[in-house]
Structures are given as structure tokens and as C-alpha cells.
Amino acid sequence: MTAFPSPILEARNLSARYGQVQALAPIDFQVGAGELVAVLGPNGAGKSTLLRAILGLVTNAGEVAFMGAALPRRNPVAVASRGVVLVPEGRGIFGPMTVMENLELGAYRLKGREERQRRFDRVFELFPRLKERLGQAGGSMSGGEQQMLAIGRALMADPKILLLDEPSLGLAPRVTDEILETLGVLNRSGLPVVLVEQRAPQALKLAHRAYLLSLGRLVAVIDPREVQSHDQLAQYYFA
Amino acid sequence: MDSALIGQSLVSGLGIGCVYGLIGIGFCVIYNASGIVNFAQGAFVMLGGMITHVLLVRGQLPYFAAIVLSVLVVALLGVVIERLVVRPLWKRNAPMFVMILATLAAQIVIERLTFLAVDDQPKTLPVFTDLPPIMVGGVAVNIQSLWIVAGSLAIVGLLALFFKGTRTGKAMRACAINREAAALQGIPVHGMLALAFGLSAGLGAIAGIMLTPTQYTAFNVGVPFAISGFIAAIIGGFGRPFGAFLGGLTLGVVQSVAILSFGAGLKTVVALSVLLLFLFVRPSGILGAAK
Ligand SMILES: Nc1ncnc2c1ncn2[C@@H]1O[C@H](COP(=O)(O)OP(=O)(O)OP(=O)(O)O)[C@@H](O)[C@H]1O
Ligand SMILES: [Mg+2]
């Protein structure tokens, strides 16, 4: 395993099940301060389940610690309040509500007006397009804009770590590049990021480390400098 | 037929329609927050009038104080039902129909307890202002109907402000749209559900209090009102609070005109006919069903 800074998020023996079906075998998973960690794997590998288990959205066992203290295992609201913010698969936009309302709800737990404005300004700086669409219903925007809104909404919470589940899903390559680039910018500003992606090459360009999952199991933890293509990744699955 | 008579029954239809509408909004608020159809809604309507009566007659409280206190008590009871009945089931991932049955059980328990605590006699409340009816173009409009219409419109307006303009109201809407995404923003989704029960219960109580002076209340009036409110919510487009209010007005007016034409015995038949008509012709309701 490659060296990484002291872990900010640390899961031990984390497993998850849907009813009787185990969707994620016990896994150790770490994110270091300032790291961007990619989670890769084919459909059904358990990538979403891993993120959902960290948040406590799915029945899970094991321990998860964040910034040195245990995270509750069955209380997503409490986990989110600790600054662990997930942009879920499918984005979870509040479709009938306006862009403005969606962003406001991201900062639900914040009371201070000035701080709220500061966060709005930061989101608009990253996604100028959102500023032009404040009155539009979130659900009526294009896929790419909705993903920007989902990330913008997550940033309104001022996350201490940002988890994203396939932000590129259903988006054109150019929009994907734009969004991944923004994630890179955020990460370089110090925000730890966990990025679930099927487009491995793009994710590996950004990532400091990558976890490779298949059929609900951890296959490998890899150093992106050593792997750049799908073919090279495939070797791990057959190893 | 006498046009003044028709005018009068339209006015009283609007009054009772407002009440159906408020009860229907109560159904929508809880349904949106949880997917639960709350069968205890009728108990809140009954308790509103009943508790006000008890505070007024036995407690000797001033009328206005009795009303306010009654609404607060019933709203609190709504929160308690969410905590005691709904939440434990929810946490155990109980199927939806189990939670709906649990609210029906709560309805029955409240009804029986009220029967034991008070009695089975009908009770009434004084009209809010003791003034003679005013004449509008030959139609005698009783003042309590005006109170009901004005009060209901004011409440609908306040609700719109709450849902559109306040942080908590927006959070409740977010829970209705996508509960999981709301939780991921740190919105306390269980608290929002408790609030939805409190709000619906308070609305039901207000409906019951406004209505009691023109009718009466007794331990068993809840279910018929709940059914009317439920029909109002369906014909308005289930899950659409404003639609439920329009649905209530529609139902109230059609019902009172029909009573005039066919007699009061067909009241329920008319209500169910309106429902069936909507289910056949426009099943998604006046405004179209939510979600
Ligand atoms: N709600 C559910 N109920 C039952 N099984 C589920 C549920 N969600 C996921 N699973 C199962 O868990 C396993 C892992 O699914 P998961 O969604 O985590 O995969 P994934 O890696 O995110 O895939 P994708 O790339 O398609 O999003 C799959 O076998 C899937 O069928
Ligand atoms: Mg997935």
C-alpha cells in the first residue's frame, strides 16, 4: 500500500447488506487529509454501497472514524452534520424547488447570514452558470447543470470531506471533464474527496490513491502513477 | 328553485368546503413528509371542538384562550402520536400499510378515550361573534360562515408563506421531494415528520373548532370529517395542499347543492359520487397528483 498522510476518514471492517444479501464484504478504507481517493470498479461492484455504508444509509457493520471520533452507524443526518457530505448517485436534486432553494438547503444547518453569503460566492465562483439560473426549477436544468447544482449544494454545507457517487453519470465527456476539473481544484484547495467513478482513466489522473472493488470485495489499492489505462487496471481483476 | 335558497346553500357549501379543505391539507402534509395516509386525522378534528368545549364549559376559560389552548394541545398530541406510534415502526422498517393501520388504531383509541372522558352527548360551541346574518343580494349569509371562509383563507395564506418563505418550510418540502437527499443535507428528517404531524393536527383542530358552532361535536364525528377531507385531498390531487383546499371547496359546494335538491340523506352518497366521478374522469385530481 502506498504511503498516505494521517487518515482523516478511517473505516475498519466495514461491511453492508441489503436484507440478507451482503453487498459489501468487510473492507478497510482510509482517506488521508487533503487526499483525493478514487473508488473504481464495474457495475454492481459495491462502490455506491461503500459510500452509503460510510453515511449509514444502508445496514452496515464495522467502525468508521472521522477526524479521530467514531461516526454514528445508523444516522445519516448526524454523519452529514459532522461535515461528511455525500453527493449521491443520481444527484438527489430537489427537482421542483429552485436552484436558489436547493443551495439554501445545502446550508440548512448554518444560521449566520455573512457566512452563508460567503459560501454562495464560492459556489458561484466555481459554477458561474448556477448564478444565472437561481430562479429556475432544479429539475428543469440539464444533466450537467444538475450535477453542478448537486455539488454546489454539498459545498454550501462547507464539507470537511466530500464524497461523490459517479458525478459523470449520463454526462457528455466535455461536461464530465469540466466537473472533474472542478473537483481537482477543490481538492487542491485542501478538501479531501472520495470519488466513485466508472471512467477510471479520468479519475486516476486526479487521484492520489484508488480502491478497486469487484463483486462487493476490495480487489486492490493502487497507486495511480502505476496505472493509467483500462488494460492495466484489468490486470488487477485477474491477479 | 328559489335563487336565494341556492345562494344560501352555496355559501354554506363554501364554508363547509373550507373545513374539508383544511382537513385535506392535513392529509397532504403528513403524506408528503412520509407517504403515510394518517387515519387519525379525524380524531384531531373532533378533539379540536371537544377540548375547546371542555375548556370553555368546565374550565371556564375565555373563549379565545380555550381555542388557542385547544389547538396547541391537539398539535402536541400530533407530535406525540408521531413519536409513540409512527417513529418506532419507521425505525423498524415496518411496511407502509402497518403504519397506516397504526394511525387507524390511534384514531379508535382517541375516540374511545374521549367517549370515556366526556360522554356520548353532542356538544356545541358559541358562534365566534353573535351577530345577525348579513344580507347580500337577497342571500342571508351567516357570520360564522364568513369566519370559516376568512379564517381558512388566512390559514392557507400563512401555510403558503411557511412553505415558500421559511427555512423550516423549505426543509419540509425537501423531505417530501426526496427524504434521503434531505437527510444528506443534515436536515433532521424525523423532526420534520414530527412537525408535519403537529401541523396537520393543529389544522384539523382549527377545522373542528370553526365548524362546531354551526354543527356540533361528539366523540364519533371524526371519521366522517376525515373521509370528507380525504376525498377533498384526492380530488385536489393527492399530496397537493392547495389542490386539497380547492377539492374541499368543490366537495362542499356540490354536497350542499345536492342536499338542497335531494335531501340530507344523500350527503354521503353525493360525496362518494363526486369522488368516483373524479376517479373516472380525472384520477390525478384538479391540480394533478404530486410525484
Ligand atoms: N437497494 C438494494 N437492494 C438490494 N440489493 C442492492 C440494492 N442496492 C444495491 N444492491 C446490490 O448490491 C450490490 C452492489 O451494488 P452497488 O450499487 O453498490 O454497486 P455499484 O458499484 O455502485 O454499481 P454501479 O456502478 O452500477 O452504480 C449489487 O449486487 C446490487 O445488486
Ligand atoms: Mg453505484
Would you give an account of this structure?
The complex is a heterodimer of chains A (239) and B (291). Chain A has helices at 47-55, 76-81, 99-106, 113-126, 128-132, 143-156, 173-188, 200-206, 230-238; strands at residues 7-18, 21-32, 36-40, 60-66, 69-70, 84-87, 161-165, 193-197, 209-214, 217-222. Chain A is of the alpha/beta class and 239 residues long. Chain A has 2 domains: 1-83 and 162-239, P-loop containing nucleotide triphosphate hydrolases (Rossmann fold), CATH 3.40.50.300; 91-158, no CATH class. In chain A, helix 3 (99-106) packs parallel to helix 6 (143-156). The model of chain A has no long low-confidence stretch (mean pLDDT 92). Chain B has 291 residues and is mostly helical. Chain B has one domain: ABC transporter involved in vitamin B12 uptake, BtuC (Orthogonal Bundle), CATH 1.10.3470. Chain B has 11 helices and 2 strands, in the order H-H-H-H-E-E-H-H-H-H-H-H-H. In chain B, strands 1-2 form a two-stranded antiparallel ribbon. The interface between A and B is medium-sized, with 23 and 18 residues. The structure holds adenosine-5'-triphosphate (ATP) and magnesium ion (MG). Adenosine-5'-triphosphate is lined by residues 18, 21, 23, 41, 43-49, 89, 198, 216 of chain A.
Summarize the structure in short.
The complex is a heterodimer of chains A (239) and B (291). Chain A has 239 residues and is of the alpha/beta class. Chain A is 37% helix and 27% strand.
